[in-house]
Design goal:
Elements: E1 2-4, H1 5-15, E2 20-23, H2 30-38, E3 43-46, H3 50-64, E4 68-71, H4 76-91, E5 94-100, H5 117-121, E6 134-138, H6 147-155, E7 161-167, H7 169-172, E8 175-177, H8 193-208, E9 211-215, H9 223-233, E10 236-239, E11 254-257, H10 264-271, E12 278-282, H11 288-291, E13 302-307, H12 310-313, E14 322-325, H13 328-339, H14 372-386, E15 390-393, H15 397-405, E16 414-416, H16 425-434, E17 441-446, H17 447-452, H18 456-462, E18 466-472, H19 477-485, H20 500-507, E19 510-514, H21 517-530, E20 534-539, H22 549-564
Parallel strand pairs: 2-3, 2-4, 4-5, 5-7, 6-7, 9-10, 9-12, 10-11, 12-13, 13-14, 15-16, 15-17, 17-18, 18-20, 19-20
Antiparallel strand pairs: 1-8
The structure holds thiamine diphosphate.
């Protein structure tokens, strides 16, 4: 087959199960853009900002469990995309970023948007840091033949892969004779002898003693197995914010969400129960917003860590942790098999019930604004329990309220960025969540975040079922309240109040203004049933403070350490 490199690459992407591409075009990627547009298997979403494209590709990849493409032109296209790409890498998405270099070395002509190999090289660091896991430069025809092998190997990784493919505009158009005929096959994992021994040990422990599972996003594929084992052995389960829904949060064995917004007391009681003998951590790096670092106090119990790249996480776990470098599903299957014949005695540990009363009305009618807890009740009732939507929550006060008060029964419905926490992630990434149109995606977004960056217009262009629920408090409230909680003097955090209903309408979405629970219920039901882009402007009570305690404490300790130096 004789076609140009751009088309050959797109054919390879199709073979790798890519179904969607998100980004912004430009002269240096014109042949790739055209080839993506002509593809019958890949749907192309032309976005309003390259980071919006990268956030959307990341969300599409994670929720659809396939690789996705992000594309951008050289120069500013690349630098604009970086925030979204870094988030994708930290979240374990599979994103293939396609862009251009203008020349290998500086041309000396100061040409427009000049981008050289040197500019790109620093974006991928050997220790696994940086923006990419791998960079592939295609400057001449022969460079292409490496792409397929590298891509197939990278996409086979289970813990995510963000690769940057940079082609000169010239090479994209060069004709090659090439067949992509190898079928992409995912590797199957087997447990090594060491892991097998540990699975027997943990199975015995689950049967004879009391253990708690602590599930992170990396355990999302093992939801059914985890549930089966936890229920069979009466073991409690905690999840990180990104792991919400992997174990049904309404189940009596669920002991709460750790990290930002967590119910500190419930988590403490669970992890320090005198009858507890082990904590089994799965698929989380237990970073600050996932754990508030409470794992550091687990001196008295055994601790196991199960997941890929366990060595990388070692530094964030108690020193006596047993590290089991394994695929979680495979490992839990082995535990389950070890337990098959055993009789399990009843547990002495009691379940803890949820504190938030969703039927109560928290808003004060006289104030003519809605209490954030009432927003949570309506989202729970309508978006989660009634319509099973994707619910994404933005950095800011939004993700503190939602971590604590929303309850999910299914994995991969709640989306949140606790590793990078970039404002704008979901104001943009909602497009990636809604792109398949299989279910409605709702973003709970601060006014500061939607003003920073959003992809409402892209959703309108493609008629996506995406709803921006704006928590309008006329300010950067997390910053304002954070200053106050730390006892610092107040600084300016105000944002002139915006009419986001009008803002949405001006872009082509449906707009709603809501000031109480009833109006929010009606607007949300209407917007979900309409299956079209909508912006709901919720005037919220800015004086209500979300459960920020742990975050403030970590901040305070950090400051004390710095002051002591
Ligand atoms: C890109 C980026 N810039 C800055 C921050 C720091 N930051 C975290 S929350 C926040 C305020 C968010 O304001 P808003 O979106 O209005 O939400 P609110 O806290 O008021 O609910 C800021 C500035 C960030 N997380 N990401």
């Amino acid at each position: 087959m004789s076609v140009n490199i751009a088309k050959t690459l797109v054919k390879l992407l199709e073979d790798c199960e890519v179904k969607a591409a998100f980004g912004v075009s430009g002269g240096f990627i014109a042949p790739i853009w055209q080839a993506l547009t002509e593809s019958e298997k890949i749907k192309i979403f032309h976005c309003r900002h390259e980071s919006g494209g990268a956030f959307s590709a990341s969300e599409f990849s994670l929720c659809q469990q396939v690789p996705a493409v992000a594309f951008a032109t050289a120069g500013p296209g690349i630098s604009n995309a970086l925030t979204g790409l870094r988030a994708a890498k930290l979240d374990g998405a599979k994103v293939i970023f396609i862009s251009s270099i203008t020349s290998v070395t500086p041309s000396g002509k100061w040409s427009l948007q000049e981008t050289t190999v040197q500019d790109i090289d620093g974006l991928c660091l050997p220790d696994g840091h940086g923006y990419f896991d791998e960079i592939i430069i295609i400057n001449q025809k022969d460079d292409y033949f490496d792409v397929e092998k590298k891509l197939r190997k990278g996409l086979n990784k289970k813990d995510g892969y963000v690769v940057g493919i940079f082609l000169t505009a010239k090479v994209q158009q060069e004709i090659i004779n090439y067949e992509n005929d190898e079928v992409l096959s995912l590797s199957h994992d087997d447990l090594d002898e060491n892991a097998k021994r540990h699975s027997q040990e943990i199975a015995d422990l689950l049967v004879n003693e009391n253990a708690v599972f602590w599930a992170g996003f990396g355990a999302r594929h093992a939801s059914a197995l985890l549930t089966q084992i936890a229920v069979k052995t009466n073991s409690r389960v905690i999840s990180t914010p990104r792991g919400k829904g992997i174990f049904n949060e309404k189940h009596s064995l669920y002991a709460g969400t750790s990290g930002l917004g967590s119910d500190t007391e419930s988590i403490y009681k669970t992890l320090h129960c005198p009858l507890l003998s082990a904590v089994i951590i799965m698929g989380s790096r237990l970073g600050e917003l996932s754990s508030s670092y409470v794992q550091n106090n687990l001196e008295k119990v055994k601790v196991y860590y199960i997941g890929l790249n366990a060595q990388e996480i070692k530094g964030n776990l108690p020193p006596h942790t047993v590290l089991i470098d394994s695929d979680i599903e495979t490992f839990l299957t082995s535990i389950d098999a070890c337990m098959a014949e055993k009789v399990i005695p009843p547990s002495h540990i009691k379940a803890i019930s949820a504190p938030h009363d969703s039927h109560k009305c928290y808003s004060d009618a006289a104030k003519d604004v809605i209490h954030p807890l009432d927003v949570m009740s309506v989202v729970q009732e309508i978006a989660i329990d009634m319509f099973d939507c994707y619910v994404a929550s933005e950095a800011g006060n939004s993700f503190v309220w939602t971590n604590r008060y929303l309850k999910f029964s299914n994995p991969l419905r709640y989306r949140i960025s606790t590793a990078y926490g970039a404002m704008g992630h979901y104001a943009c990434g909602l497009v990636g969540l809604a792109a398949s149109k299989e279910r409605c995606a709702i973003g709970i977004i601060g006014d500061g975040s939607i003003l920073m960056s959003n992809e409402v217009s892209t959703a309108v262009r493609f008629g996506l079922p995406a709803i921006w629920l704006v928590m309008n408090d006329a300010g950067y409230n997390m910053c304002r309240q954070g200053q106050e909680l730390l006892g610092y003097p107040p600084l300016d955090c105000s944002i002139p109040q915006v009419d986001f209903a009008l803002f949405g309408q001006s872009i082509g979405a449906t707009g709603y203004n809501v000031r109480n629970k009833k109006e929010l219920r009606e607007a949300l039901i209407h917007a979900i049933e309409e299956k079209k882009p909508a912006v709901i402007n919720a005037f919220i009570d800015k004086y209500e403070i979300p459960p920020l305690g742990d975050r403030v404490e970590t901040f305070r300790k950090l400051k004390e350490e710095l002051d002591a130096k």
